[in-house]
C-alpha cells in the first residue's frame, strides 16, 4: 500500500513474516494498545516500567501541543535576521541533534551540527563568521559534557571577537534544569523550555527538534501538519494500523532470531532518517540482553541489506526494494510518529521498558573518571604497525600476533556466527569522512552485520544496545592524534583529552562486559586510515 500526502503506510513483502505478525497485531488491537498509547497510559509495559512511562509519553500529543512554539521560533528568526545573524550552529547530542539534522537536511537548509568532541571539527565550526552565528545549545539536563564544552568554547570565541556571547546563544532545555539556571544568569538571548515528559529520543517534535530546525529555515509548521495527519491512523485500534503492523513484524522476526533491523533509503526524499531511527530503536529496545539492533546501510545494494541473513530484517525507508522484507512510506512528520509508535509497541512485545537507558551512564562515568585521574597516561599499544597503534582488550589477540591484518582477523573471529561488528570512529566527521567506507569493507570481509558510528555521538544511541542488548558484538574503535587541540574554558581538560577519554571509557566498559574490543590509534589520521584499508584487503574469513 502506498502513502498519500500526510499519510503513512507499511508494506510486508515476506508472506511468512506477515502470517507470523498477524496474531500479534490482533492481540494488540484486542488490548487497545494504540488508543491507550495515544491516551498516554503508563501501564502498557508492566509495573516495573510504569513510573518511568508516566513521565515519558507526552510525545504522542506533540503534533498539537508544540504549535505555540511556531510563532516564537518565527519571531526569533526574524529578530536574528534583522541583526544579520543567519548562521545556525547546533550543540547537542543524541536526540537533541539527530532530529534537527534530518529535518534540515530533508528541507535543504543549512545547519552546522556539533555532536562531536573532535577539536578539528569544532574548529571548523568556529571558523565560520561568528558575527552571523547563533549557537543553539540543546540539552535536557544541561549536564551533557559535550554540549557544555561547546557552550564554553563558543562563548569564549564570541567574546574574543568582541561580540556579546549572550546575544548569540539560544538554549533549549527542560524547565528547572541546571542549564536553564545558568542560561538565565548569563542572560542568554532566549531560553526555550521543552516538554519535560518526553525522552530525548522521542523529542523530534518538541523544542529540541523544532527550534534549531526552524531557526535554520525548515518548514517546521508543515512537519507538525504531517505528523498530525498521521495521528488518526496511528492511534486506531485496527488491523490496518501501520505502527501495530510494523511493531508486530519486527517482534515476530525477533522471535525467530532476527534481532537486527537493516535500514536503507529507497528514494523516500528524506535525508538521514536511518540515523535518527537508529537511536530511537537501539536505545529504546537494547536492554536486558535483548533488543533490536539497527544497521544503517548506504544503499539497498549494500552488504547487510541485499544479502541479509536470518539474523536480520531488511527494512526500506520508501517503497520496498529488492531484498527488503518491509517498507515504510510517508512524509517525514508521519514517519517520525510511525516509528515512535512502533518502537514503543515493540517494547511491550519484547517485555522491556522502551523509555529508560540503564547502560548509557556507565561509559560517561568511566570517561569522567579518566578525565579526573591525575595519572591517566595513554596506555601502551600491544604493537605498532606504521601509523597505527594496536590496543586489544585482554585475551583478544593470539600470542605472536604482530600484524594489523592479524589483529583485525582476531577481532572478527571472536564474533559468533550471528553476531555483529560495531565500527566506532572518534575522528572528524567532515575531514575524516572517508572512514565511513570501513563499514562496507568490514561487512564484506566478515560476512556479519556491521554498524558504523561516529564517536562520541553513538554513545547517546547505539551505546545502550552495545552494553544492554544481545551479547554477540565485537567492537572496532578508531582514535586519532590531534593536530591542534582546543582548551575548554574553566575546565581542566581539552576537547582532544575529552574525546580520547570517551573512547577509552566506553572501551573499558565494553571489555568489562566481556565484549571483544580492538582500538586502533592513528598517529597520522590519513596515513592510518590508508594502512587500515590495506589491512582489510588482506583479511579473509
Describe the structure.
The chain is an alpha/beta fold and 541 residues long. The protein has three domains: 9-32 and 237-346, Rossmann fold (3-Layer(aba) Sandwich); 60-223, Glucose-6-phosphate isomerase like protein, domain 1 (Rossmann fold); 359-540, Rossmann fold (3-Layer(aba) Sandwich), CATH 3.40.50. It is 44% helix and 16% strand. It contains 20 helices and 16 strands. It has helices at 15-30, 33-38, 47-53, 62-65, 67-82, 95-107, 119-126, 145-160, 178-186, 207-216, 220-234, 242-255, 273-285, 332-350, 360-372, 404-413, 437-446, 462-468, 495-512, 525-538; strands spanning 8-12, 87-91, 112-114, 133-138, 169-173, 190-193, 260-265, 293-296, 312-317, 326-330, 383-385, 388-392, 420-426, 449-454, 473-480, 517-522. A six-stranded mixed β-sheet has the order 11-12-16-15-13-14, sandwiched between helices. The chain has a five-stranded mixed β-sheet with strand order 1-10-9-7-8. It has a five-stranded parallel β-sheet with strand order 3-2-4-5-6, sandwiched between helices. Helix 19 links the parallel strand 15 (473-480) and strand 16 (517-522). Helix 11 (220-234) packs across helix 14 and helix 12 (242-255) crosses helix 14 (332-350). It is globular, with a radius of gyration of 23 Å.
List the total number of helices: 20
Cα Rg: 23 Å
| Name of the CATH first level of the largest domain | Alpha Beta
Largest β-sheet summary: 6 strands, mixed
Give the beta-strand count: 16
Going by CATH, the homologous superfamily of the largest domain would be: Glucose-6-phosphate isomerase like protein, domain 1
User: What's the CATH architecture of the largest domain?
Assistant: 3-Layer(aba) Sandwich
Overall form:
globular
Point out poorly predicted stretches: 1-5
Helix content: 40-55%
Query: What name does CATH use for the topology of the largest domain?
Result: Rossmann fold
How many structural domains does the protein architecture include?
A: 3
Strand order of the largest sheet: 11-12-16-15-13-14
Strand content: 15-25%
Mean pLDDT: 95
Distance between the termini: 41 Å
What structural category do the secondary elements indicate? alpha/beta
EC number: 5.3.1.9
Protein name: Glucose-6-phosphate isomerase
Keywords: Gluconeogenesis, Glycolysis, Isomerase
GO biological process, one term: glucose 6-phosphate metabolic process
Amino acid at each position: 500500500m502506498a502513502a498519500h500526502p500526510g499519510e503513512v503506510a507499511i508494506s510486508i513483502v515476506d508472506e511468512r513474516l506477515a502470517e507470523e505478525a498477524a496474531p500479534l497485531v490482533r492481540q494488540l488491537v484486542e488490548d487497545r494498545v494504540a488508543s491507550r498509547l495515544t491516551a498516554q497510559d503508563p501501564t502498557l509495559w508492566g509495573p516495573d516500567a510504569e513510573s518511568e512511562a508516566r513521565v515519558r509519553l507526552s510525545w504522542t500529543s506533540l503534533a498539537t501541543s508544540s504549535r505555540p512554539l511556531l510563532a516564537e521560533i518565527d519571531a526569533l528568526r526574524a529578530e536574528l535576521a534583522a541583526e544579520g545573524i543567519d548562521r545556525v550552529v547546533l550543540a547537542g547530542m543524541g536526540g537533541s541533534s539527530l532530529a534537527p539534522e534530518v529535518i534540515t537536511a530533508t528541507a535543504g537548509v543549512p545547519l552546522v551540527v556539533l555532536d562531536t568532541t573532535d577539536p578539528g571539527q569544532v574548529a571548523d565550526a568556529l571558523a565560520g563568521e561568528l558575527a552571523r552565528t547563533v549557537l543553539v545549545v540543546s540539552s535536557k539536563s544541561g549536564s551533557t559534557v559535550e554540549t557544555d564544552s561547546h557552550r564554553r568554547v563558543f562563548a569564549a570565541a564570541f567574546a574574543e571577537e568582541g561580540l556579546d556571547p549572550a546575544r548569540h546563544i539560544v538554549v533549549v532545555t527542560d524547565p528547572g534544569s541546571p542549564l536553564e539556571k545558568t542560561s538565565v544568569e548569563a542572560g542568554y538571548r532566549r531560553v526555550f523550555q521543552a516538554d519535560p515528559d518526553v525522552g530525548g529520543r522521542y523529542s523530534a517534535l518538541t523544542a529540541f527538534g523544532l527550534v534549531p530546525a526552524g531557526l535554520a529555515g525548515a518548514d517546521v509548521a508543515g512537519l507538525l501538519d504531517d505528523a498530525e495527519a498521521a495521528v488518526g491512523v496511528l492511534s486506531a485500534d485496527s488491523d490496518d494500523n501501520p505502527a501495530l503492523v510494523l511493531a508486530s513484524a519486527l517482534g515476530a522476526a525477533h522471535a525467530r532470531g532476527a534481532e537486527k533491523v537493516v535500514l536503507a533509503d529507497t528514494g523516500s526524499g528524506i535525508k538521514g532518517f536511518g540515523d535518527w531511527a537508529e537511536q530511537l530503536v537501539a536505545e529504546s529496545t537494547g536492554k536486558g540482553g535483548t533488543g533490536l539492533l539497527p544497521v544503517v546501510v548506504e544503499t539497498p545494494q549494500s552488504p547487510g541489506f541485499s544479502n541479509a541473513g536470518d539474523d536480520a530484517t531488511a527494512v526500506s525507508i520508501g517503497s520496498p526494494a529488492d531484498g527488503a522484507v518491509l517498507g515504510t512510506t510517508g512524509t517525514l512528520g508521519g514517519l517520525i510518529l510511525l516509528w515512535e509508535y512502533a518502537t514503543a509497541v515493540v517494547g511491550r512485545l519484547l517485555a522491556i521498558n522502551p523509555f529508560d537507558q540503564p547502560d548509557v551512564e556507565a561509559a560517561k562515568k568511566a570517561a569522567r573518571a579518566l578525565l579526573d585521574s591525575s595519572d591517566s597516561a595513554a596506555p601502551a599499544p600491544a604493537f605498532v604497525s606504521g601509523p597505527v597503534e594496536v590496543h586489544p582488550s585482554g585475551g583478544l589477540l593470539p600470542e605472536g600476533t604482530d600484524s594489523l591484518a592479524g589483529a583485525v582477523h582476531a577481532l572478527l573471529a571472536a564474533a559468533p556466527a550471528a553476531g555483529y561488528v560495531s565500527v566506532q570512529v572518534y575522528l572528524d566527521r567532515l575531514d575524516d569522512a572517508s572512514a565511513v567506507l570501513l563499514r562496507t569493507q568490514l561487512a564484506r570481509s566478515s560476512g556479519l552485520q556491521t554498524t558504523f558510528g561516529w564517536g562520541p555521538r553513538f554513545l547517546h544511541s547505539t551505546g545502550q544496545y552495545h552494553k544492554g542488548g544481545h551479547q554477540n558484538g565485537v567492537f572496532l574503535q578508531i582514535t586519532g592524534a590531534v593536530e591542534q587541540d582546543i582548551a575548554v574554558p574553566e575546565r581542566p581538560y581539552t576537547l582532544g583529552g575529552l574525546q580520547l577519554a570517551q573512547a577509552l571509557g566506553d572501551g573499558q566498559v565494553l571489555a568489562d562486559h566481556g565484549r571483544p574490543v580492538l582500538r586502533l590509534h592513528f598517529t597520522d589520521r590519513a596515513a592510518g586510515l590508508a594502512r587500515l584499508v590495506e589491512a582489510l584487503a588482506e583479511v579473509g574469513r
